[in-house]
Amino acid sequence: MRTLGQIAADYERAEVTVLWLHDAPTGRHVLLYGVAELCPPEQERSDEIRGSKGGAVHPMDRTDFASAGTLYAARIFLEHPGEAIDFYRGVAGRRTIAPEGDAIILEPLLSRFQEEPPDEHPVLLDGRGAESYAGVLPRRNTAVRICSRFAHGQSYLDSLNDRQKAALQDFSQRVLGIDLVKYCEHLGAAHLMLPNALIRGWSERLGEDLRSVLFEFYERDGRTVQGSTLQLTDHRTAGLGFDCIVEITSSRQIVPIPIDPASLETRLRNPQGELIEHIEAPFLRSVRITTAISGRRRRVHTRNARGEVEVNTIQTYNDDLGRADPDEEVPDPYALLQEARTRRESAQLEQKRDFILFEGGLDSRDHARKVVRELIGNARDRCMLCDPYLSAPDVTEYATFVRASRIKIRLLGSAMFLRAEAAGGLTHGDQLNRRLVDLRAADASLVFDCRVLLGRDASPIHDRFLMLDDKVFVLGSSLNELGRRVTTIYRAPHAPALVGVLERWWNDTNACVPIGDWLTRRTAMPRDERSDE
């Protein structure tokens, strides 16, 4: 394995892009983001970063950091790739730049960096790794290898107030095109980028005979792909189809393969054996291979809804071969990247209101109330709250937040809950009806239609739903408990099916009656018959 110093000989120049904080109280310059890129032949020079102050133009940009100091960004162009490696490595974590001639010493965000991968062995960004870096690195048309030193930026972001976060987000996006609040795991990090130094790109096509693959490599000026190797691996559901390694002798080369591949994985290694490209052919479907050992068959006896005994056989298997004990795993930068990506995916789902997780507690309860009120407030044509435990407080807490005047607010509760006694000697049904009367009297723009699902021991509808215009949201708990414990809200992926079911129940006069009629009928019933709805 070559060292970074040896790898630097493959490149012509380098660029270093940095964003740092001049901390006013201490006078320190603190690195908030840095990427050093080794530039191969033909790669265009990036745009300069410039700013103005007092009528003069400077080779860096700046902004106020909410009275805590000043944020700066600069891009420095270096003639010798080794200088970029020196920046990446730093000395005792400190890095030196000189955008205006005078040296600036950038101190680390934390005293200790974590290196990924270890020992300065650059790895090719592909698959999940590429997704973790996609939002923070300059985009290149060729494959890129990377070395990184992380500083656990999430903890630093948590220490900032809202104004500082907004300033950091706006400045990093405006100047660098990077959202360092969204991608906070890269705060304080230093990256070293190594684009493919031999080729600008490549293509592969399956031959008409399905027994050969044509490769075409677009070599950089003064560089050749000859002497590199291709590894072709065919994946099949029944096992490995074939695995062959061939040496590249020309920029256009036909590689024979023994059989028509099911899923072809291609790896390109340079003459030093370093992986510089890795793809799966787009003309072939991808098949995931799982290694497992069959285990015992489990027999389970159950009864179906008609009381009949069913015997179920489950074939078990073990796919934990070679896995370490999860209790012994130590979080590393790669794991932190995956965790951060998962957080962003969850945040995006919540932002689109497709899936929201509430982790429980008072803050979670407040968050849940805010989300449901927002959803209901956005309804324009249709609004239905279906909750087997719908109560009078729920109507005030949520239904009254409809903003569209005169929209009919349909409330669907259950006899199972509404006949139970509540405070003051009244039933929940009595309380709910009185609340509706009071709300109508106080605000004529509120139009309620409340109906009761009949059922002796349980509500015929189990889940809780919000039917709002053409969307249906499923609630993991009733409105009166939403967010208090761990639960979720998610948007149903096929709303018409749920809309149809809810509408059928709503219009079925044998299963669902207006609350006024239900209360009148119950009052006329003998007390010992009131549970027979």
Structure description:
This protein has 533 residues and is an alpha+beta fold. The protein folds into three domains: 4-195, no CATH class; 199-280, Immunoglobulin-like; 346-526, Endonuclease Chain A (Endonuclease, Chain A). 23% of the residues lie in helices and 34% in strands. The strands form six sheets. Strands 1, 2, 5, 6, 7, 8, 9, 10, 11 and 12 form a ten-stranded mixed β-sheet that branches. Strands 22-28-27-26-23-24-25-29 form an eight-stranded mixed β-sheet, sandwiched between helices. A hairpin with a 5-residue loop joins strand 20 and strand 21. The longest helix has 19 residues, at 333-351.
Radius of gyration, whole Å = 32 Å
Helix content: 10-25%
Give the percentage of residues in beta strands: 25-35%
Biggest pleated-sheet summary: 10 strands, mixed
Shape: extended
Mean pLDDT: 86
Distance between the termini: 78 Å
Put simply, the count of helices is 12
When the domains are counted, the total is 3
* Poorly predicted parts: 282-291
- The count of strands amounts to 29
Structural class, judged by helices and strands?
alpha+beta
